Every structure is written in structure tokens, then in C-alpha cells.
Amino acid sequence: MATTSSTPGSSSDLSITVESKPSESRLSELGIKSWPKWGCPPGKYLLKFDAEEMCYLLKGKVKVYPKGSSEFVEFGAGDLVTIPQGLSCTWDVSAPIDKHYKFASSSSS
């Protein structure tokens, strides 16, 4: 499983970061259990991230293909994932997703 992925020579670094099996203390430090939940059945989904998202997958498996790239990042249950702001991608979900998620606050001035 890849830990990070970025397209070589891309003008902006829109790489997805995957932290595999983070510790319980890391999860409670982030307050993940209080984050909203989201899920989806298997299928392909076109998504655009207008804000950075951090998510923790409770179950499921997905390959994420950044727009304009043939490479993908794969992650699943037990992974803590950070998706950068501005990323457009296709989620190819092979097992139903159930995740906690949180968007970064846009309070940067």
C-alpha cells in the first residue's frame, strides 16, 4: 500500500496521504469518533475536494484516481487518509465505504 502519491512533474502537489492503522491514542487525539459519518455503496464517483479532508475508514476499500493521472492511491478499513484541497478525482469503490470525516476549517487569512 502506498503511503503517499504524487504525479512526478505536476505543477501543484495534490498528493493523498495514507496513514495505515493509526494507534487508538492518535485516533482519540483527533477526536475521530465525534466526526460526522459518510458511506457509499460500490461504484465510481467523481469528487472534487474544495477543502482538505481527513477521513478514517471504518470499512470498505477504494482506489482513488486523481484527475489527469493514470496512477491511483488505494486505501481501506483502518486507514487515516488526508485528501488535499483542490483535488478532483474518481473514487472506484470496490467494497462499501463507511467513514468518519472532517474538513479543514477555511480560516486561513
UniProtKB/TrEMBL annotation:
Residues 1-17 have a biased composition (Low complexity). Residues 1-23 are annotated as: Disordered. Signal peptide: none annotated. CDD domains: cupin_TM1112-like. It comes from the Eukaryota. Residues 27-101 form the (S)-ureidoglycine aminohydrolase cupin domain. It holds the Pfam family Cupin_3. SUPFAM superfamilies: RmlC-like cupins (SSF51182). This is RmlC-like cupins superfamily protein. It comes from Theobroma cacao (Cacao). The lineage of its organism: Eukaryota, Viridiplantae, Streptophyta, Embryophyta, Tracheophyta.
